[in-house]
Amino acid sequence: MYYRHGFFRFDENGEMYLDAVNPGFSIEDVKNNVGFDLNVYRCSGETKPPTYRQLEILYKVVDPEGIFLP
Fold it and tell me: Record's InterPro entries (predicted)?
């Protein structure tokens, strides 16, 4: 699940955990902006920036009218 501060996943028991932090944010930033005790022990570091191909798909296929993406 994507969040502006990072990326979350769910483990085999259904517990949400922080998988990666977006550039410009820290684990503490994420913990301070969620309303529950977030598991951060599995955090793998920063999210990787999107590839050119991924951006192309977002802008040309997902949102060609520019409604959601600037």
Answer: NagB/RpiA_transferase-like
User: Containing domain of residue 8, as a range?
Assistant: 2-62
Domain assignment of residue 70, yes or no: no
Amino acid identity, position 69:
L
Q: Residue-wise pLDDT tens for the chain (70 aa)?
A: 888 899 999 999 999 999 999 999 999 999 999 989 999 999 999 998 889 999 999 999 999 999 998 8
CA distance 24 to 12: 29
- CB-CB neighbours of 6 under 10 Å: 25
pTM of the model: 0.71
List CB contacts of 3: < 8 A, sequence separation 6 or more.
30
